[in-house]
Amino acid sequence: MISDLPIAAIATAPGRGGIGVVRVSGRDLSPIVAAVLGRTLAPRHATYGPFLAADGGAIDQGIAIHFPAPHSYTGEDVLELQGHGGPVVLQLLLRRVLEAGREFGLRLAEPGEFTQRAFLNDKLDLAQAEAVADLIDASTEQAARSATRSLSGAFSAAVHALVDRLIELRTLVEATLDFPEEEIDFLEAADARGRLARIRDDLHALLANAQRGALLRDGLNVVLLGEPNVGKSSLLNALAGAEVAIVTEIPGTTRDRIAQAIQIEGVPLNIVDTAGLRETADQVERLGIARTWAEAARADVVLHLLDARETDTVAALAIERELDHRLAEAVPMVRVYNKIDLAGKAARVEQADSAGTVSDRAAPGAGETIGKKSWPERGQSVSSVWLSAKTGTGIDLLRTLLLELAGWQASGESTFIARERHLIALRAAQAHVEAAEAHARERAQQLDLFAEELRLAQERLNEITGEFTADDLLGVIFSRFCIGK
């Protein structure tokens, strides 16, 4: 755990700016206020004046605000000195603050330490504290709005509501265990099955919302691969709306990965263009091809590009069979038939149903015969998009399909930001709730096992907000914050 000694740091980003902030937090900052400002400050009032050096000269002119505990960001006394945003001026001011507070143990703050103190002093729960960093790091407007909702407590409130209902159900179970002589069918009398089913449904909805929030935070890794000259670089440029990759008629132009961050309806996507897949003696190109397969292994979605004029090449079939071995079953793959402007085809999307049947399919699909060859089957249906990266026809269809594959649904103001650890905790809680349901369905009702699964589900949910969290996890979380926050 961190110490309770006062801390200080520059709270604004490095570089030049109109305003820069030095922030201090501790139990009693009045000696520092007197030394640096030469006066007392009214609580929560902006006071303009000089920031004084040790010899009484002015370092800068600016605004000072004192937030007495507990009504502050950290729950401790907080002093903010807002001066001009030059890096030299801010360093001089920070050095003066540290000098004035040296005898009281004032030191430089560690990354995330201000927010960590806010968490430890019950000003924020852990999910809200993480939302602070997510709001700072947000790469899209939608991500920023969702992080703000998490910071305001929307995610935490949903988690707490589920925990309260689990506690209520646990209380009924424990009471029944304490009085076994009562000849009451607990599960029927207390509607335990119904209560648990409603908890399960609400937990499922919360997990779906959290998955959308995690997508906003982390983005979707989309890898483009295929034979040389099928239009991977052109598609990257079309999706990015800029010439970020060199496009030529020479096979093997792209020899290394090219990554470009874009956004679709506020959802961040990381598009990765890769070297064309083919047999080659060129050592550099072979290294690029090896990196292509490595990128595919890390992908959330793989786009297999094919020339709409030649959809049944032996090389394309070989690539897809290799993908079938390398990709996890859960990773969606999309066949993108490019150059429809040259093939005389119409832009469209084809999505197979659960039986593998595809309506209005004009190109080979899962299980369909191509001469004497056939596309390999995958564990899930494979979608196809027909488009032209050169003219832009069908690009919007691909964008929409990528959002669908990501599980994104425009949900207005209900989405909140989430992290992978939140998803892990929610999935674990869901598994414990399902295990409790299994015990409830057993003829010989084992209420002790039922109660234990409820307890474990509650603990996993409490991990999200920090009611039940290991100290080493806190260290990992807050170490990734910026200094001064």
Folded structure, characterized:
- The structure is a single chain.
- With 485 residues, the protein is of the alpha/beta class.
- It has three domains: 7-123, Probable tRNA modification gtpase trme, domain 1 (Gyrase A, domain 2); 136-215 and 416-479, tRNA modification GTPase MnmE domain 2 (Four Helix Bundle (Hemerythrin (Met), subunit A)); 220-405, 3-Layer(aba) Sandwich (Rossmann fold).
- It contains 16 helices and 15 strands.
- It has helices at 30-37, 87-100, 113-120, 126-137, 141-151, 154-178, 186-189, 192-218, 232-240, 283-297, 314-326, 340-343, 395-405, 420-441, 447-465, 471-479; strands at 7-10, 17-26, 47-52, 58-67, 77-85, 107-108, 220-226, 258-264, 267-273, 301-307, 333-338, 348-350, 369-370, 373-374, 383-386.
- The strands form three sheets. The chain has a seven-stranded mixed beta sheet with strand order 8-9-7-10-11-15-12, sandwiched between helices. The protein has a six-stranded mixed beta sheet with strand order 3-4-5-2-1-6, with helices on one face. A two-stranded antiparallel ribbon has the order 13-14.
- A hairpin with a 6-residue loop joins strand 1 (7-10) and strand 2 (17-26).
- Helix 6 packs antiparallel against helix 8 (192-218) and helix 6 (154-178) packs antiparallel against helix 15.
- Residues 250-255 and 353-373 have low confidence and may be disordered.
